[in-house]
Amino acid sequence: MRPRVFCGIAAAVALFATACGSGGGGSTDGGSGGSAQATGAFPVKVADCAGRETTVPQAPKKIVTSNAAGLEMLLQLGAGDRVIGTGFPPGRGSLPAPIAEQGAKVPVLGEMGIAKEKLLGSGADLYVDAFGAMPMMGGAGAGPSEEEFTAAGIRHVFLLSTACAGTPKAAKGPRTDLGEVENDIRRLGAVTGTGARAEELVAGMERQIGEVRTATAAVPADQRPGYFLFDFDAGTKQPVAVCGRQVANAVITLAGARNVFADCDADFKPVSWEDVVATNPDWIQLAVRNRGSDEANRKAFDDAADFLKSFPATQGLTAVKEGRFLRIGSEVTTIGGVRNADTVRQIAATVHPTLVKNGQ
Fold first, then answer.
1. What was the pLDDT predicted at 7?
2. Helices of type H across 48-104
3. Are the beta carbons of 247 and 334 closer than 8 angstroms?
4. What stretches of the chain show up as alpha helix (H) in DSSP?
5. Which residue in 38, 244, 331, 344 has the most C-beta neighbors within 10 A?
6. What is the mean pLDDT of the chain?
7. Distance, CA of 126 to CA of 65 (rounded, Å)
8. What is the per-residue pLDDT across 219-237, written as a single tens digit (0 to 9) for each?
9. pLDDT given at position 71
10. Which long-range contacts link 302-305 to residues 24+ away (Cβ below 8 Å)?
């Protein structure tokens, strides 16, 4: 069984937030043209966080992804048969059923970051990078330079929704929509020649989100319930808050709730239990990473709830006493992807049950 290394483990959530989370708000098309997205025409130009363009002359045949976020997008796009390796692999059971079997067959080039030599020697002609200009993790050292990518014949493209944190591309203030994630799906569709499928995926996301937005539009901002995402796997000694620039903030906001830590200007931030108690959230998401089976997942959710019920600092919270818990996994909330829209509906159906129905 593979380790559950979507964004590292425990404290890595805080230490490596920009690598695994979502950088800033704001949308960018990354330089990929609409005609390329719609028709699969090449060459395609895509930009990095600094605006430097990479030209992809033809549909790639061998793709490596830096982590499970890019891998899942490629699987959803129908380009999974071209993925020859990944870093930060998805945990067993974390991928949706239609793509799980194919995803499990992708070779793991690094349980965390991919070592520079292994990446350059992989034989890939495209590398999908969610990390941006930061050191690679897991003892892999610094990533290849652009010159080294070029020498190895690897086109280097980015998931801008995650790679641009702390750069001029990162918008200021909380992130409140999934535009960047949708643009990443379109961008990968353009560079892999699966643009039509990308538009289908984005349209499905926008349909779900639009229905929820319409249903909750009449709820005043000051009456939207406070929402705390409890990242149980980040540890219980010091909680790690989901901040305004994390994709989960957009998911929570679109669901008609109010992230109680939206004001912190980061992706993730270690806070104190006193800080959590002071927010007095109306709802608490028991965010655990997928354990690989329904039984193991149930136990993890139960363990998270039991901790909050027994811990002196939190047992008196109204949300805890009344059992206002949402059992929704970390991956579909804090990792940018198609399933973020499903999570928007799931949260909305829980916190606004008279307005939104789940799965409809």
1. 38
2. 68-77, 97-104
3. yes
4. 12-15, 17-20, 34-39, 68-77, 97-104, 116-120, 146-151, 160-163, 179-192, 195-216, 247-254, 273-279, 294-310, 318-321, 331-334, 340-351
5. 344
6. 86
7. 8
8. 999 999 999 999 999 999 9
9. 96
10. 303/232, 304/230, 304/232
Using an 8 Å Cβ cutoff, are 294 and 301 in contact? no
Exposure class string for 81-112: b at 16+ Cβ within 10 A, else e: ebbbbbbbbbbbbbbeeebeeebeebeebbbb
Instruction: Pull the structure tokens for residue 315.
Output: 């047992």
Structure tokens at 172: 């200021």
Amino acid of residue 158: F
Amino acid identity of residue 39, one-letter, is: T
CB 117 within 8 A of CB 32: no
**Residue owning tokens 């901790």:** 307
β-sheet with 283-287: strand ranges across: 258-259, 226-231, 283-287, 325-326
The answer to whether 35 touches 24, Cβ cutoff 8 Å, is: no
Cβ–Cβ < 8 Å for 9, 259: no
For 214-230, letters b (16+ CB in 10 Å) and e give ebbeeeeeeebbbbbbb
Report residue 251 as tokens: 């998911």
Most confident of 4-13, 38-47, 328-337: 328-337
| Rounded-to-integer distance, Cα 268 and Cα 202, Å | 26
Burial (CB < 10 A; 0-12, 13-18, 19+), residue 168, is exposed
Give, in order, the Cα–Cα distances in Å from 240 to each of 13, 176, 258, 261, 339. Answer: 8, 20, 17, 10, 23
